[in-house]
Structure formats: C-alpha cells, structure tokens
Amino acid sequence: MDEFIIRDAADSDHSGIQRIYAHHVAHSLATFEEVPPSIDEMSARRASIMGSGLPFLVATQGSEVVGYSYAAKFHTRAAYRYTIEDSIYVSNSFLGRGIGKALLGALVNRCEAGQWRQMIALIGDGNPASIRLHEGHGFNVVGTLKSVGFKFGRWVDVVFMQRALGAGSTSNPMDASRPGDESI
Q1: pTM for the full model?
Q2: pLDDT digits (tens, 9 = 90+) for 21-58
C-alpha cells in the first residue's frame, strides 16, 4: 500500500476534491449528480458541512489529494439531527489501495466522538466494492430503493446501509449533551 495521510480538508484541497468528484460525476453511479460542480461550488459545500460541525477529510499522497470523505446531515428536519450520511470518493487512479477503507474508518471514528448516533450510506447501483467497504466498517444493508435515479440512460437502484455510532439507539442523546450539541 502506498503511503498516504488522512487529515482535515483545507482550502488548498478544493481543486483536488473537485477533480476527483468531477470524474465520478462523469463516469460513475457513485453520485447521481450529472454536471460536475465548479471548484467554488465544492468549496461552498465543504464550508457548509464544516459549518455544521461535521468532518470533511482528505487523503493525500505527497501534495496530491487522492481521496476524500465527509459526513452530512441525513435530512434537515429536527428529528433527524443525530443521523448523518457518509460520502467517500477516491481518485480513479488510486482505487484498490486501501484509501477508501482508511477514509471511512477515520470518518466513523470522528463521528463517533460527536453526538451523532446513526450513519447512513446510500450506494448507487448497489456497487459491490462500496457495499463490502461499508460492511467492513459495521454497516448493514437495510433496504434498496428500486429505479430512483436515472443516469447514463438507465434507471438506477440505491442500496441503503446503516450503522450505529457510539451508543446508537441505546440511550437518549439529550441526556449526554455537551456544549455545542444544541446547534445541530
């Protein structure tokens, strides 16, 4: 495995993040977006995620961003405030080198240190590699939405996966609130 470092994303990473994502938009079903967003748009998305207190991580090899992951709110309604969704993207030329595994592991660890109790993964087209990656980090398949996306001229399913974070549903998150939790 090549040496890489996982760290919090910085402003200087935006072009690498955008490059990776643009490839997935144009060539994969990992995202249902059809037009690659600009660097400015990716910067705004990162700022929004981090402004919500959620992590946005990058994997770098030397000065190159080779992958990234982040957690985002699963839904905006208040009752969902302890449930988040993960996203992981790896540079096409760095697939199969353990970067996705390391990014997801770091993301889960960071989120377990917070107030969140459930993490959801939405897997486009039931991608077997992504399903295995998530299973390796304790996610379970909880369902499949059939034909909910239309990309590359065909209907695409989405596999839902889920895992508990920290105490999961075994305790009331309001009983263990910490300063800052009320901002979710």
Answers
A1: 0.91
A2: 999 999 999 999 999 999 999 999 999 999 999 999 99
What distance in Å separates the CA atoms of residue 55 and residue 61, rounded to the nearest whole number? 20
d(CA 85, CA 74): 5
Please compute Rg for the chain using Cα positions.
16
| Distance between CA atoms of residues 75 and 29, nearest Å | 21
83-90 vs 118-124, strand pairing mode: parallel
Rounded Cα distance, 84 and 81, in Å: 8
At 178, which amino acid appears? R
Is residue 49 within 8 A of residue 56, CB to CB? The reply is yes
Q: 83-90 and 154-164 as β-strands: parallel, antiparallel, unpaired?
A: unpaired
Q: What's the CA gap between 106 and 33, in Å, rounded?
A: 25
- Interhelix angle 99-112/128-135, nearest 10 degrees: 40
Biggest CA–CA distance in the chain, Å, is 49
Average pLDDT of the chain to the nearest whole number = 93
β-sheet bridge partners, residue 164 = 118
The Cα–Cα gap between 80 and 184 comes to: 10
> Residue 125 region, left (φ>0) first, then alpha (ψ -120 to 50), else beta?
left
Tokens representing 133?
Answer: 């990656």
Helices assigned H by DSSP within the chain = 14-27, 39-51, 99-112, 128-135
